[in-house]
Inverse folding.
């Protein structure tokens, strides 16, 4: 008995030594090539775990030195601030343009990142709804969220930059005549509609993922969220359904190389190649498999069955004049959203 | 025989370097770890002077968050004062099977990550759970995603505070007075109320204040159970996170200063109470 145990132990130690030896050999080799640090938001984590090995083999087959990756995934705003405060990410992949712009304003991104294809937006999605299996409340469009007794979830736009998309999607749809009973262009009526939906709010989680977790735990009738969150949830076996409103906002996720850190690390060729690769049709198809719509028209056409076109799709720029005006106008102390929630809770 | 050189040391060696070094190390450590970060927050919150601080905390959402934090903590502290005293009384005065287990369980809430506490409470009392559903349909009580959920979470995370401050006092309490009262014909309740309770009152108060001060900063459990609707169920700690995320450092620091000052004041009060307790 004891003999057997010691034999096993010896085998285990032998194996361990072997593994360590291999690991050491591995790092020694890697040190020769470049190491890229990716600072990303959490949603595309699975997509990147597929994309990185593809890029590595492409890069090496084109004669590049082996490149290794260090990946960090955080909420978009937190990631952006971490990069400014010294987390030396070579490539930043975030959920909001404002989060990249903050890094640029801090002087760390010095090139014109918007000159990349699609204005630097590597993936897109839309604001949509998750509803219970079978859609028991027959929720079809924005107007249904204001019906009395419908329990609505959305994350808090103060804690989750991404949640601003939800509120802007709702308000923009109302302004564009996408909500029954709200005349096109009538801001007062759109604000009333926003208030009606806010009255139905039961939980405001701190992030989009937390909000979906709450919904998955059985709370609420409908969650305002992003199409990709619903699709990824369904891929993971959740039985909720996706409802796409007739009028909604296009979510755009930027990616940019962080010049300051790239030059410090001396990895510009590999970092540039990686960013370029993310915009290639091959990489775009990987994003599409993970719930994200492609800004590439070719890929969008080939995945149209998964991602039906939205009758009235608008962007933050054409509806609200960009984040510079939308953020203070809606979420500042005197913003439309802030004032609406004050009035609703004061009732 | 001890060699003479060991007996008489030169005068310079009498300087207690060790003791001074120890003191310096402790003060430096405390300063670097606690005082400097606190000073940064205070400086941050006062960037626009007292008027700016006041403007930041008098915003409706901030003001409501602070009020909600304080009243839920106050309700929790009252319940803790009663139930914590009861628990420690039972633990000290009675023998029963499973007492050791109960004793060990008192400190358990300190060991559990408060985020886990929050998740557990949602599973147990959430609207989708049998218990939560029954409470809501039969009594119209919504516990989770409403202020009662906050009180519940606070009760859980601060459970040991009153028990652990009252218990040692109760253990040291001279039982002769209680026995004398019993000989004079006082009932159990009268003895507890007139003899035991007055002796415990300071420790109950200091335990309750400590739990209040701990509750002000609670985040992990609350963010899960509260629902976080501004002006309804969003507490100060969750509000601060929102302001940090939205790059309103002033707003975040201003509310933090109020929370800090309250906690600090309470800790001082508890300290003063303890001194009185020891003097007795």
């Amino acid at each position: 008995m004891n003999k057997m145990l010691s034999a096993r132990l010896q085998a285990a130690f032998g194996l361990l030594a072997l593994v360590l030896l291999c690991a050491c050999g591995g790092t020694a080799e890697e040190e020769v090539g470049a190491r890229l640090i990716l600072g990303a938001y959490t949603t595309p984590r699975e997509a990147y775990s597929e994309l990185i090995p593809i890029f590595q083999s492409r890069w090496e087959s084109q004669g590049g030195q082996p490149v290794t990756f260090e990946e960090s995934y955080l909420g978009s705003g937190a990631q952006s601030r971490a990069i400014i405060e010294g987390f030396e990410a070579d490539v930043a992949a975030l959920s909001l343009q404002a989060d990249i712009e903050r890094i640029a304003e801090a002087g760390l991104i010095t090139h014109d990142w918007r000159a990349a294809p699609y204005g630097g937006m590597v993936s897109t999605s839309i604001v949509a709804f998750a509803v219970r299996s079978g859609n028991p409340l027959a929720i079809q469009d924005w107007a249904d969220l204001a019906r009395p007794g419908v329990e609505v979830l959305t994350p808090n736009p103060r804690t989750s930059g991404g949640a601003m998309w939800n509120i802007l999607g709702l308000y923009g749809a109302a302004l564009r005549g996408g909500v029954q009973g709200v005349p096109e262009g009538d801001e007062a009526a759109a604000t009333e509609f926003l208030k009606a939906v806010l009255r139905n709010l039961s939980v405001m989680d701190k992030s989009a993922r937390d909000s979906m977790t709450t919904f998955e735990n059985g709370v609420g009738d409908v969650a305002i969220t992003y199409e990709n969150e619903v699709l990824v949830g369904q891929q993971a076996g959740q039985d909720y359904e996706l409802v796409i409103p007739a009028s909604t906002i296009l979510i755009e996720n930027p990616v940019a190389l962080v010049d300051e850190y790239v030059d410090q690390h001396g990895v510009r060729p590999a970092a540039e190649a990686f960013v370029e690769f993310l915009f290639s049709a091959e990489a775009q198809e990987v994003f599409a498999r993970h719930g994200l719509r492609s800004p590439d028209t070719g890929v969008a056409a080939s995945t149209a069955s998964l991602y039906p076109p939205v009758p009235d799709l608008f962007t933050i720029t054409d509806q609200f004049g960009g984040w510079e005006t939308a953020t203070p106008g809606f979420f500042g102390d005197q913003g439309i959203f802030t004032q609406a929630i004050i009035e609703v809770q004061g009732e | 025989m001890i060699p003479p050189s060991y007996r008489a040391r030169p005068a310079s060696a009498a300087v207690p370097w060790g003791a001074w070094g120890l003191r310096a190390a402790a003060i430096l450590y405390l300063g670097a770890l606690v005082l400097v970060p606190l000073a940064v927050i205070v400086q941050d919150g006062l960037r626009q002077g007292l008027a700016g601080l006041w403007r930041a905390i008098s915003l409706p959402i901030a003001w409501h968050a602070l009020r909600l934090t304080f009243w839920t903590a106050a309700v929790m502290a009252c319940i803790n004062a009663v139930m914590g005293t009861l628990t420690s009384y039972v633990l000290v005065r009675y023998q029963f099977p499973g007492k050791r287990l109960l004793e060990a369980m008192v400190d358990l809430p300190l060991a559990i990550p408060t985020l886990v506490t929050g998740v557990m409470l949602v599973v147990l009392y959430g609207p989708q759970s049998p218990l939560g559903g029954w409470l809501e349909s039969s009594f119209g009580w919504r516990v989770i995603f409403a202020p009662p959920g906050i009180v519940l979470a606070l009760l859980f995370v601060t459970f040991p505070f009153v028990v652990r401050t009252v218990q040692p006092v109760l253990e040291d309490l001279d039982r002769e007075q209680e026995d004398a009262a019993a000989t004079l014909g006082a009932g159990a309740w009268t003895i507890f109320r007139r003899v035991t309770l007055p002796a415990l009152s300071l420790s109950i108060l200091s335990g309750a204040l400590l739990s209040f001060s701990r509750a002000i900063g609670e985040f992990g459990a609350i963010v899960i159970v509260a629902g976080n609707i501004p002006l309804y169920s969003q507490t100060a700690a969750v509000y601060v996170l929102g302001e940090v995320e939205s790059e309103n450092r002033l707003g975040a620091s201003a509310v933090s200063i109020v929370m800090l000052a309250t906690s600090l004041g309470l800790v001082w009060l508890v300290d003063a109470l303890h001194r009185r307790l020891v003097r007795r």
